[in-house]
Structure formats: C-alpha cells, structure tokens
Amino acid sequence: xxGRTVALLAVVIPLLMLLGYVALHSGPLAPIAVTVTxxxxxxxxxxxxxxxxxDARYTYKIGTTFAGRxxxxxVDVGDRVLAGQVLGEMAPVDLxxxxxxxxxxxxRAQAALREAExxxxxxxxxxxxxxxxxxxxxxxEEVVAxxxxxxxxxxxxxxxxxxxxxxxxxDGEALLAQRGDLRLIAPVDGVVALRTADPGxxxxxxxxxxxxxxxxSVWVNVRFDQGSAGGLVAGLPAHIExxxxxxxxxxxxxxxVEPMADAVTEEMLAKVVFDAQLAAMPPIGELAEVTVQLPAxxxxxxxxxxxxxRIGNQTGVWQLVDGDLHFTAVQIGAADLDGQVQxxxxxxxxxxxxxxxEKLLAAHSAIHVVERIPGAPR
Length: 378
Prior knowledge:
The protein has three helices and 24 strands. α2 runs antiparallel to α3 (about 140-180). The strands form five sheets. Strands 1, 18, 19, 20, 23 and 24 form a six-stranded mixed sheet that branches. A six-stranded antiparallel β-barrel has the order 3-12-15-14-13-16. Strands 2-17-22-21 form a four-stranded antiparallel sheet, with no helix packed on it.
C-alpha cells in the first residue's frame, strides 16, 4: 500500500504542477499581454475624412407649360448642348392655324384703324370749314354743333380702332409666345443628364422631358462625423478621391457647410468643389472620399486612438503606473488621420498607457508587456 501511494503521488503531483503552470501562463489566471506607448508632445495637422457623392449644383429641368404630344427630340443622354440650342419640339396641333388667323385679324384691325383715321381727318376738316362759314354768317351755329358731334364720334371710333389693333397684336404675340414654348431650348451650356420621354409621348403640363446640368457646377456632397467636425468651415482645402479615378487625389475646397445636420446619422453635411473643372465630368451619384485639411495645432500630449477606452460615461486610457493598472479619464481634442489624438487633460508627457491588449482589462488584471500582440495592427 505504501508503494502504491508513493507511485500515485508521483503521478498526481506532476499533473497538478502542470495544471498550475498552464493556469498561470495560458489559462484564465495567466497575465494578459499588452503593448505600451509613452505619451509624447506632438504638433498635429488634423484632418477630416468623409464619404460623399458627386452631385450637380445646378440642374435645369426642361419641359413644357401645357399638355401636348412630343413631336421630336434631337438629343440623348450624355450629349453636350449649347445655351439657346433647340433640343426638341412639341406638336403645335392647331396653333399654327390660330397664329395665321390672328394675323388676319390684325390686318383687319389695321384697315379699320386707317378707315377711322380717314373719317376723323374728314370730320376735323369739315368742322374747320363750317366754323369759317359761321364767321361769314352763311350758316347757323346748329350746323357747326352737328359737325362738332360728328368729329367726337370719329375720335371715339378712332380710339376704339386703336384699342382693337392693340388687343389683336397682344393676342398675336401671346400665340407666338405659345408657339415658342413648344420648342425645348437649352438654358445653359451643359450635358443632358436625363431624358424621360420619346417622340410621340403625350406630355402633361409641367412634366420634365430633359434635365441638363452644368459640368462646371459639379461638386461633392460630403458627410462628416459630428464628433470630429469641429473647425469645419468654408474655404478649407480638401483632397477628393473619386472611385472611377483609381484613388488619384484631386484638389478641391470646402465651399459651404450646411446649417442643417443629419440628426439620425449624427453627421454634418458640407459641399466640396473641385479647384479645376475636370476634362471628363464624373457621373452624378459616384462615391467619393474627401479629406479636409484643418489648421495645424501647436504641440501637445498625444496618444494613439487605439489606446482610448470607454467605461460607463467616461472616456479614458489604461495607464501603467509602477507596474499597476489605473483607468485615467481624459479629455480629448483633435485627431489626425494617422490615428493620433490630442489629450487636453488627464495625461502628462512621459506617462505610459496601454494601446492593445489580448483581452478586456480590469483594475486588478495581471499583465505583461510585449512588443507586439499577434493579430493586432502594427
């Protein structure tokens, strides 16, 4: 029995020692591997990064002001047009006949005006002659009064004829304006972006047939996170990377920051324009990555963005003090695109903070410092 006990202990004790070793080095009691960095003073050149879409600042919707049938359309999507160019035309139906009829009405009104003018001149001459006869006492005053009344009637007929011809000309001009509205005319130099109808289609009043955009008015509608958009103002330089250009940055600038933010996505909206008009206009709706350069900041304590942790309502870092862990709340400022964040309060230059850890840390976690944790970003 004594030999068996010794043999059993010889087996159990090494197993217990092995289990203890495993528990202390790779089990739940093993220290957590962490990487550490030292807080240093550094001048930051903060930048904002956002995703946006290509849009047109000015879009001209071309259509008709009354219902009708589209007779012809001379352009298609992608065609370049010039200001004043006729792009298509609506069917006039009976409008041409009405214009010719109105021209005849104007001619009749002109003839009536000439007749009224002749009657007026004759009545005026007769009145002048009869006044001379009254002076010579050859006729009575009643005859002169009759001629005076005839002149007044002639004046009224002449005035009515002038009104008739003015009304006829106005009606003719209105018909000509309606005839001109049948033509779809490009308001600016641009590119046809949308065509919604084909010849033969019935168009209702106010319906858009074509949309024309100005290539020079193309800009990018960008969204930036509200938490990092402090200092975003119009006039800041920007770099625009279009998906279709293989990531080649194009210079631009912020032309406007929208006063209305998106409350759902917690983003601010801005408009960014290209410094120079592109030779080939990018497609409307194309995704673009925009980087806006903010003014440079003076040197201040900075930490990597990866070192920041949020516990409860506090943002802070795990600080290493004499080998012990302490959670230190910090007040952060601007950040750059390299992942460096300015610390306004809570840390001093030379403090050591945890950047990466194998597991979530707690105040009493055992740790050991390594140069790099496998799988962690470099």
